[in-house]
């Protein structure tokens, strides 16, 4: 009987240990999956920011429209009305009825003036906002909004510390994590100096880390292939101002090969878009052959929009 109780006791202890082990593994895997989901959203955030910065350097708008702000000057009628009021105030004669009418008129004029001011915008600065159609051929690529770019780059620093810790927790190498942070510092210097060529080069080096991180947090082959393709496309785009068409052509070829290897033969419900992108990428080569940067930018913009739809 004692042996039976001992056996039962040890059996229960063994069952508790085994259940604890499985429970620990289950919680650990669940936490790891949550960590990967969080890191994936952070990587997507970085990817979107870098793409935005790439496009800002050539004033490329994905929606084909840009917001313009126009300062509205005071109307001449308002100035004329003010002069008349000054003249009327200098007159000493007039009937009480006329004075009453004048008072009512001034009150109505004041109300009208306030109403007009309110209709010009909620900011009270007499600014008019308009959506204007924009395109590669109508944009001034040399008129870069450096202020906006500087603010975007500076905003990255508020997120990097958290992202660094999350990437470390997933076992991503210290070299790859710190390498991104160092490249971000180099990008900041280029942006501060308003050096377009160096800024594009630094952005390309930063984007190189996105596919590395992505492969550690997801098995989504379509998404990984999409980012690999964009990485090579950005390499070609980033050296467009150098006019080194041979190197641009090499990067376009790498873009086509990356897209073919990763996406062309995948079973997906987006096969039509994939086939369309493949044709567009091959047509991008004609811009390289013609050595025309405007044609390249038009095709680059359209390709990028289609890739983002995958």
Which SSEs are present, and which pair or pack?
Elements (H helix, E strand, L loop, with lengths): L1 H55 L8 E7 L4 H14 L6 H23 L8 E7 L12 H24 L4 H19 L3 H12 L1 H9 L3 H18 L6 H20 L6 H20 L2 H16 L2
Antiparallel strand pairs: 1-2
Helix pairs in contact: 1-4, 1-6, 1-7, 4-5, 5-6, 6-8, 7-8, 8-9, 8-11, 9-10, 10-11
* Total count of helical runs of at least 4 residues: 11
Strand order of the largest sheet: 1-2
End-to-end C-alpha gap? 69 Å
Note the beta-strand portion: under 5%
- Give the H and E element order: HEHHEHHHHHHHH
Count of strand segments: 2
Shape: elongated
Uncertain parts: 65-69, 75-81, 89-121
- Name the average pLDDT: 79
> Largest beta sheet, briefly?
2 strands, antiparallel
Q: Helical residue percent? A: over 70%
The helix/strand class is mainly alpha
Round the Cα radius of gyration to an integer and report it: 32 Å
Would you kindly provide a written description of the structure presented here, covering whatever features stand out?
The protein has 310 residues and is mainly alpha-helical. Helices cover 74% and strands 5% of the residues. It has eleven helices and two strands; from the N terminus they run H-E-H-H-E-H-H-H-H-H-H-H-H. It has helices at residues 2-56, 76-89, 96-118, 146-169, 174-192, 196-207, 209-217, 221-238, 245-264, 271-290, 293-308, and strands at 65-71, 127-133. The chain has a two-stranded antiparallel sheet. Helix 9 (245-264) runs antiparallel to helix 10 (271-290). The protein starts with a helix and ends with a helix. 22% of the residues are buried.
